[in-house]
Amino acid sequence: MSQPDLSYKDKKVISIGTVSELTGLTLRQIRYYEERKLIAPYRNESGTRKYSFTDIETLMDIADKREDGVQTTEILKELRLKEKKRESEMDVKKKMLQGQLNAQFKQGRGRS
User: Fold this and answer.
1) Which regions of the chain are under pLDDT 70?
2) pTM value?
3) Distance CA 26, CA 15 (A)
4) Where in the numbering of this chain does the HTH merR-type domain appear (predicted)?
5) Which end of the chain lies in a sparser environment, N or C, as judged by fewer CB atoms within 10 Å?
6) Are the C-beta atoms of 16 and 49 separated by less than 8 Å?
7) What is the tens place of the pLDDT at every residue in 28-38?
8) What is the spatial distance between Cα 101 and Cα 104, in angstroms, rounded to a whole number?
9) What whole-number distance in Å separates Cα of residue 107 and Cα of residue 111?
10) Backbone φ, ψ for residue 99 (5° rounding)
11) How many Å apart are CA 95 and CA 100, to the nearest integer?
C-alpha cells in the first residue's frame, strides 16, 4: 500500500531507529507512545514502522510534556482536540472553495 501525495513533512519514510536517534527517545518509549495512540506510524507490508518529520515533531512535543509531568491521557485529549480543529478548518476551506467555484460557474453561465 503506497502513501498518497503528501508534503515532505508528512511522508512516512523514517525508520524507528533514526527517529530514536533524532529524538533521543528509546525504541521502547516510541512504541509505548504508539500503544497509547499518541502517534500512528505507517506500517509497510512487512510491518516495519515508518515515521514522518511531523511524527518526530509530535514525539518531541510529547517528550517535553512528559518531562513536565503531563499524563499520556491528557496529551491524547490535546492531540484529538488539535485534530478536530484542523479537520474543522479544512471543512471551512472546502466550503469556501466550493462556494467560490459555484459562484464562478453561475457567473460564467449567466454570460452565455
Assistant:
1) 1-5, 108-112
2) 0.71
3) 13
4) 13-81
5) C
6) yes
7) 999 999 999 99
8) 5
9) 7
10) -65, -40
11) 9
Q: How many CB atoms within 10 Å of residue 74?
A: 11
**DSSP E strands: which ranges in 1-112?**
14-15, 42-43, 49-51
Cell of 75: 496529551
Report DSSP state, residue 46. Answer: T
Q: What is the pLDDT of residue 94?
A: 87
| Domains in the chain: boundaries | 14-110
CA distance to 3, 16, 42, 75, 102, per residue, from 49 (Å) = 13, 6, 6, 22, 43
Q: In what helix (H) or strand (E) does residue 100 lie, and over which residues does it extend?
A: helix 72-110
What is the CATH architecture assignment of 14-110?
Orthogonal Bundle (1.10)
At a CB cut-off of 8 Å and minimum separation 6, what does 34 contact? 40, 41, 49
What pLDDT does residue 7 have? 85
Rounded to 10 deg, the angle between the 53-67 and 72-110 helix axes is 140
